[in-house]
Write a structure and sequence with these properties.
- The complex is a heterodimer of chains A (about 220) and B (about 250).
- With about 220 residues, chain A is mainly alpha-helical.
- Helices cover about 85% and strands about 0% of the residues of chain A.
- Chain A is flat, with a radius of gyration of 21 Å.
- Helix content of chain B is about 40%, strand content about 25%.
- In chain B, the strands form three sheets. In chain B, strands 8-9-10-3-11-12 form a six-stranded mixed sheet, with helices on both faces.
- The chains are: A mainly alpha (about 220), B alpha/beta (about 250).
- The interface between A and B is medium-sized, with 23 and 31 residues.
Chain lengths: ~220, ~250
């Protein structure tokens, strides 16, 4: 059994990564949600075929290529043509762009769940199409999208572990470097697992609370 | 000619299927018109063409001498149509209340966002409209907590809040349980008594006879027969009207 000092040492080493894990999660979440929402709007509410095609191409591109590949392209690929991103920037950008493909689908499902009559009633009341989206469709679509977004956020906490591959100093990055120097494999990775749990469980709980809140007031 | 609403040669086709085959119609201010006819006859489509929820394939619609849906010879976008649409209040078969808003908000929101009324005034207007449909007691409820009849009365208040020149009712009682039909018809009757101009698509023949000034019988996308409500309903001339009325009375 490792002593309390060893545990303290491991914990201290990994906690250095928690901040970065959280930072990457929050930034990627913001980028992914905002951009995914914008994509869902243009995909659902414009009629241009070119726009539809472009959005669909984006979704397929980010859905069907592994996150690691995207990160390597952003970090190593761009650097080789002279555009050097920091590991953190590449991580946030990569996970944000990949995330946008997921949230776009979540928001679109939210919009599509609304009956046509909701739009018709708004147009008949004299709303412009944008006002209809803003005041009538968006608030309702958000409620439908909320559980999906919550799951996405929890998934994102876990997915940040791949950015250790481009040397972004998050939990798994420190875990691996500590393993190579101390060989406390089990202890270090188990501690990392507990840290991830401590990050995602409260998040999941928060999502449940939100769901319950909106579930109650929902029509 | 002092018609409030004038429709000429209105046609609507979905691909090869022609649903409206040339409707001409003129409605004077304060007139109440009932559109009756078998399902698929085009009566709902006709109503929905008036505010361009369906885009007509041909024909012209004038409200107060202003052509609907056309500007400088070119079709208007939904954005351009918004002010014209707000002059017609529409009541739908399935109510279509907005479930994320309370009853009062449902009625007030168009006044706030479309006409730019301050929140307090919009709320006062909403409460005034809710009083007309006897729904003040549920002002803070969510639509989901209301019966179908109550929801439809709120939807009527919502349409009234637009201060429309014309009210369009698209089968307002068809989705209601039989015991709830009466409360909605009563409200519509009260509005009729205020002298509002109304077009009502309905299957309630007795209601059409008692409340409407004029009845239009549509079948196969054309107006087969029209005239004063009592004449058309009690003594129809056309065989198709006669057989339709006979069927729904049984």
């Amino acid at each position: 059994m490792p002593g309390i000092e060893t545990l303290h040492f491991v914990l201290e080493g990994l906690l250095a990564g928690v901040g970065v894990t959280m930072l990457v999660t929050v930034c990627a979440l913001l980028i992914g949600t905002a951009f995914g929402f914008a994509l869902s709007l243009v995909r659902e509410f414009t009629r241009s075929r070119l726009i539809h095609f472009s959005v669909d191409a984006y979704l397929e591109f980010f859905r069907n290529i592994p996150a690691l590949t995207h990160l390597f392209i952003l970090y190593f690929g761009l650097a080789s043509i002279g555009l050097r991103l920091s590991a953190l920037t590449a991580a946030v950008l990569g996970l944000g762009l990949i995330g946008a493909a997921s949230t776009c689908d979540i928001f679109r499902a939210g919009f599509r769940a609304l009956p046509r009559g909701q739009t018709e009633a708004a147009l008949a009341a004299g709303f412009t199409p944008w006002q209809t989206i803003q005041f009538i469709l968006m608030p309702q679509a958000m409620r439908v999208a909320l559980p999906g977004l919550g799951n996405f956020a929890v998934q994102l906490v876990k997915d940040t572990s791949v950015v250790s591959a481009i040397a972004a100093p998050e939990i798994m990055f420190y875990a691996r470097s500590m393993v190579t120097s101390s060989f406390q494999t089990t202890l270090i990775y188990t501690t990392a697992a507990v840290l991830y749990l401590l990050l995602s469980l409260p998040l999941m709980q928060g999502v449940r609370l939100l769901e319950r809140h909106y579930g109650r007031t929902k029509g | 000619m002092d018609a409030l609403l004038r429709v000429t040669g209105l046609r609507k086709a979905y691909g090869p299927v022609e649903v409206l085959k040339g409707i001409d119609l003129s409605v004077r201010p304060g007139e109440k018109i009932a559109l009756i006819g078998p399902s698929g006859s085009g009566k709902s489509t006709c109503l929905r063409c008036l505010n361009f929820l369906e885009k007509p394939s041909a024909g012209q619609i004038f409200l107060d001498e202003e052509e609907i849906g056309v500007r400088n010879g070119r079709p208007m976008s939904d954005r351009e149509l918004a002010p014209q649409r707000s002059e017609m209040g529409m009541v739908f078969q399935l109510f279509n209340l907005w479930p994320h808003l309370t009853v009062t908000e449902n009625v007030a929101i168009a006044a706030r966002k479309v006409r730019g009324l301050p929140a307090k005034e919009a709320r006062e207007l909403a409460l005034e409209m809710l009083a007309k449909v006897h729904m003040t007691h549920r002002a803070d409820a969510s639509p989901a907590e209301l019966s179908g009849g109550q929801q439809q009365r709120v939807a009527i208040a919502r349409a009234l809040s637009q201060k429309p020149k014309l009210m369009l009712f698209d089968e307002p009682t068809s989705a209601l349980d039989p015991e709830l039909v009466h409360e909605v018809l009563k409200v519509i009757e009260e509005l009729a008594a205020e002298g509002r101009t109304m077009l009502i698509v309905t299957h309630e023949i007795a209601f059409a006879r008692d409340v409407a000034d004029r009845v239009l019988f549509l079948d196969g996308g054309v107006i087969v027969e029209e005239g004063p409500a009592r004449n058309v309903i009690s003594h129809p001339r056309e065989p198709r009207t006669q057989s339709f009325l006979k069927q729904i009375r049984h």
